[in-house]
């Protein structure tokens, strides 16, 4: 009997403990649920603290080298190629003979044109003498003069054809491509050679609209070449496009003297000094990603008492991924850098980082 009573008491105690535990867990769950409910109404965001720092004000732009001069040399006449005097990689000077085209038929035409010219000279002289004595009319003399001019023009035209049978390089440079072989039949416009001059190369880059006003023609620019990290190069700005492209970037060309190491097509970076020689400047900046609808909008969200607050700022120059702030921030504000698409002015936020 006593054992039974003991069992009953122990069971009651265990039951009481079990009930207490369940009740306690329910209270804890209520607290957790309440906290989660609070967080559901908040939007997760990342923030940075607006602060002043020393910013590298040099502006860099990437691009590729292009030849200072290049030309595609084409045939001026129709005919069969007799000889090709250069090969790919050959260096040529302007006016140098690089190929010859058969000109037998052209020379026959030249002989005929010269004979016609001699006849025109004789006929014109006869008409001129006859006109002095009244033997021919003024119209006949004029016609003879016209025939003489036409004959002279025909000789000059054949002379051009004869000259074009000797193909000459239009610029000094290197044969980059040879597109013909001896025996090939060409016609006017047939490509024959590609000639490039890389004694001086040009680095072609695109400069952002916010920076183009800070560079000028003749300015010396440092050049870093990716495949030649140990070497230093410099060039001068020779061209700044007067019109931007569709992305509001301005094409800029920088001429660089070639010591033989640079090749057209190499990738390089131009470093523009844009702050009167100073390498850094202390300024208040925020990330470009923080702006709503782009940097040009000047709109930012900051965290104010746990809520998002939209503000308007005045921006300065863009330095890489950082934007200079001229007015609208004092420094120390928590600026939201992600999650803006889900925010409205006054939205509750939860700072993730």
From TrEMBL:
Gene3D superfamilies, per the entry: 2.40.30.170, 2.40.420.20, 2.40.50.100, Helix hairpin bin (1.10.287.470)
TM regions (residue ranges): 5-23
The YknX-like C-terminal permuted SH3-like domain, residue ranges: 284-350
Any one GO MF annotation of this record: efflux transmembrane transporter activity
Coiled coil: 103-130
Database matches in InterPro entries: Beta-barrel_RND_2 (IPR058792), MdtA-like_BSH (IPR058625), RND_pump_MFP (IPR006143), YknX-like_C (IPR058637)
Key words of the record: Coiled coil, Membrane, Transmembrane, Transmembrane helix
Positions of the Multidrug resistance protein MdtA-like barrel-sandwich hybrid domain: 73-196
Domain CusB-like beta-barrel: 203-274
A Gene Ontology cellular-component term: efflux pump complex
Pfam families tied to this protein: Beta-barrel_RND_2, BSH_RND, YknX_C
Protein family membership: Belongs to the membrane fusion protein (MFP) (TC 8.A.1) family.
Protein name as catalogued: RND family efflux transporter, MFP subunit
Organism: Soonwooa buanensis
